[in-house]
Design goal:
Strand content: 5-15%
Number of strands: 12
Distance between the termini: 32 Å
Bound molecules: adenosine monophosphate, magnesium ion
Length: about 500
């Protein structure tokens, strides 16, 4: 990022311009309310890249007002705070009413780079808090902050994060933790569950109003389509298929793919007990609370399809059943094509051959059987020496106990030979798609412990720097590519956040 240029024309907090299109929808869509004040807030993390999106000068983070504003204590002119209501299928069970239980939409900051929802996550109770306290803990706020920016740097659509503001106010989870507010930035926070709410209530006119809103604000090119709502569904299906293909390719597990956590824009949203695949396991379940493994890694593509059925169902007042079904039938092919194309690139293959899908399956089986580190494998694969007598020791080392490695390596070598692949050029291409650095759980945990125990936020900063350039070799940062140390083997993440 060119900071100097991005800063040109950047403004002070008071000069930001706000609107709130969501707030102009009928009152059934939300509740207007103010955030609950948080005592003695302080800045924990500030993300200049997200500030650039809204045209905010980076120096503004240094003002005491910044923390007061982005924990919800002080409202800027133009803010129009509200909590949105939605419904959703949680672990396959329909819940008629959910909503922003602890998130408050402040409004849309509008600038040269478009309109961006600013949402405070952890800003206090709302009418949709159910049993919750309306708060988020520092731990989970750091996890979302790092993950959303890491995903963005990997080229995966996601909500962004502007800042974390902390407070010493205690929040009770499994143990006593401290409160924090994350400022989330996204073009929209509308979820599949937003449609399900009105459809389940048989408020079909609101389903139409919401579809019109989403199309007008986020899919304006569909306005002229013969059937805009059908086209909307098709676009969401396509975006979701491509998003999940990216998740699978990078080894991202979301953990809670409920329909209220599915974005109408095909963004990764609501980071909770997510995880980046380490030792490869098809059935990896990153969420400790997911006993049945509903959201296991290899379930994600099918679950997204199921979730799209829920969305389509809620749009049935507006579109023909047969057309919806036909649109849903396109999902699988879109996913498979996107996934295979991403994986071909990860394998360094420049041409398409009929055997590629089988080679990929066998590659993943090799990884699974040895629980080889997913990210390390692909990064090392970039150095594959395709000479017949090469031993590729660093790669082989990942499969020390495996009898299948030799045969697999020979097959891969022959596949490369088939397209006359040149080692040096292939490595360059592969290093641009196989990240060296991903947000391993233990890396996040290290940053969290430093922040929570010592008020040292430097590790969040360092980790962020590394994750913002995941494909680059970074001098002195080798340790951040290492697999988990022994102490981290017992780390577990759950829905508690
Ligand atoms: P999630 O699956 O984590 O996105 O959360 C599901 C629902 O629970 C959402 O409607 C959240 O707003 C709500 N929720 C989660 N944690 C809390 C909390 N601490 N206080 C109030 N509501 C919460
Ligand atoms: Mg959620």
């Amino acid at each position: 990022m060119n900071t100097a240029r991005a800063e040109l024309g950047a403004v002070r907090l008071e000069e930001l311009r706000f609107d709130n299109h969501y707030g102009r929808l009928p009152p059934e869509f939300y509740t207007r309310l103010s955030p609950t004040p948080l005592p003695e807030p302080y800045l924990v993390a500030f993300n200049p890249a997200a500030a650039d999106l809204i045209g905010l000068a980076h120096t503004e983070a240094g003002r005491s007002e910044f923390a007061e504003i982005f924990c919800g204590n002080h409202l800027l002119p133009g803010f129009d705070p509200l909590a949105a209501v939605y419904a959703g299928h949680q672990f396959g069970v329909f819940v008629p009413q959910l909503g922003d239980g602890r998130a408050i939409l402040l409004g849309e900051a509008s600038g040269a780079r478009g309109r961006w929802d600013l949402q405070l996550k952890g800003a206090g109770m709302t009418p949709y808090s159910r049993m919750g306290d309306g708060r988020a803990v520092l731990r989970s706020s750091i996890r979302e902050y790092l993950a959303s920016e890491a995903m963005h740097a990997l080229g995966i659509p996601t909500t962004r994060a502007l800042a974390i503001v902390g407070s010493d106010q205690p929040v009770i989870r499994e143990s006593v933790e401290s409160a924090a507010v994350l400022t989330r930035v996204a073009p929209s926070h509308v979820r599949f569950g937003s449609f399900e709410l009105f459809s389940s209530r048989r408020q079909y006119e609101h389903v139409g109003t919401l579809a019109d809103h989403v199309i007008a604000q986020h899919y304006p090119h569909l306005r002229e389509a013969g059937q805009p709502c059908l086209e909307l569904l098709r676009e969401v299906i396509g975006r979701t298929a491509r998003l999940i293909a990216q998740w699978q390719a990078v080894g991202f597990c979301h953990g809670v793919m409920n329909t209220d956590n599915m974005s109408i824009l095909g963004l990764t949203i609501d980071y909770g007990p997510y995880g980046f695949m380490e030792g490869f396991d098809w059935g990896h379940v990153c969420n400790h609370s997911d006993d049945g493994g509903r959201y296991a890694y290899n379930m994600q593509p099918g679950i997204a399809h199921w979730n799209l059925y829920c969305l389509a169902q809620s749009l049935l007042p507006l579109i023909e059943m047969e057309a919806a079904q036909a649109a849903l039938d396109e999902y699988e092919q879109e996913f498979e094509q996107s996934y295979l194309s991403l994986m071909r690139a990860k394998l360094g293959l420049a041409t398409q051959q009929a055997e590629d899908a089988a080679l990929l399956q066998d590659t993943l089986k090799l990884l699974h059987d040895s629980r080889a580190d997913y990210t390390t494998f692909f990064r090392r694969l970039g150095n594959f020496n395709s000479a017949a007598d090469a031993n590729n020791a660093p790669l082989h080392e990942l499969f020390a106990q495996s009898a299948s490695y030799g045969a697999w390596a020979e097959r891969y070598r022959l596949r490369l030979a088939l397209e006359a692949s040149v080692d040096a050029g292939r490595k360059l291409r592969m290093d641009r798609v196989n990240p060296k650095y991903v947000l391993r759980n233990y890396l996040a945990e290290t940053a969290i412990r430093k922040a929570a125990d010592e008020r040292d936020y430097g590790e969040i900063e360092r980790l962020m720097q590394v994750l913002q350039r995941p494909y680059d070799e970074q001098a002195g940062m080798q340790a951040y590519a290492a697999t988990a140390p022994q102490w981290a083997s017992a780390l577990a993440v759950s829905c508690s956040s």
